[in-house]
Write a structure and sequence with these properties.
Strand content of chain B: over 45%
Structural class of chain B: mainly beta
Helix content of chain B: under 10%
Strand order of the largest sheet of chain A: 1-9-8-3-4
Radius of gyration of chain A: 13 Å
Order of helices and strands of chain B: EEEEEEEEEEE
Strand content of chain A: over 45%
Shape of chain A: globular
Oligomer: heterodimer
């Protein structure tokens, strides 16, 4: 079973920051937080991951709370092409990814 | 993008026939995975492999078998396809040489069992 809780859907205006929350209150010390997204009909795409520090790459930023029980994925300037289902996943380095239902993000022009 | 291809990309078959899906990688990654995706269920792990000839079951392995005779290929076989196996199948790979194993996914195979 997925160890995370995400809102079912969110809307974001094009050009604005999209902030996608994720709760993972039972996360253990050796588990990482991963974010993937799936654009319609395509395979899931890796976005970013982190353990306890905030992370940033060319796609997004990941903010993890100090107690690690929740995190937020930030797409700084959402475009229509960012419309997708976003999955927050926690796992240690030894297990396959377990996907939940994710958040359906709709970027609106 | 990771070098992952899946074949065929689309297949229509009849109930009771055997079906084999192929996942091919050019990354020399040790780990390979098969998932299926259905409306209302999201992605679910079928089988995975942690090396040549080494495989393990996932969440929904009944009715499926896998084989990995070489690093680059991971085959998923439906011995006798059923309508409940109509789905989109995704292959993924990951690199065990890194401290954190990020999985990369292929483009998917759409299977329709009539």
């Amino acid at each position: 079973d997925a160890k995370t809780t995400q809102p079912t859907s969110m809307d974001c205006a094009e050009g604005r920051a999209a902030n996608l929350p994720c709760n993972h209150s039972t996360i253990s010390g050796n588990e990482y937080v991963y974010w993937y997204r799936q654009i319609h009909s395509q395979g899931p795409q890796y976005i970013i991951h982190g353990l306890k520090n905030n992370e940033t790459n060319e796609m997004a930023s990941l903010i993890i709370t100090e107690d690690r029980k929740s995190s937020t994925l930030i797409l700084p300037h959402a475009t229509l092409r960012d419309t997708a289902v976003y999955y927050c996943i926690v796992r240690d380095s030894n297990t396959p990814l377990v996907f939940g239902k994710g958040t359906r993000l709709s970027v609106i022009a | 993008d990771a070098g992952i291809t899946q074949s065929p990309r689309h297949k229509v078959t009849e109930t009771g026939t055997p079906v084999t899906l192929r996942c091919h990688q050019t990354e020399n990654h040790r780990y390979m995975y098969w998932y299926r995706q259905d409306p209302g269920h999201g992605l679910r792990l079928i089988h995975y492999s942690y090396g040549v000839k080494d495989t393990d079951k996932g969440e929904v392995s009944d009715g499926y078998s896998v084989s990995r005779s070489k690093t680059e290929d991971f085959l998923l076989t439906l011995e006798s396809a059923t309508s409940s196996q109509t789905s989109v199948y995704f292959c993924a790979i990951s690199d065990s040489d890194r401290a954190v194993w990020t999985q990369y996914f292929g483009p998917g195979t759409r299977l329709l069992v009539l």
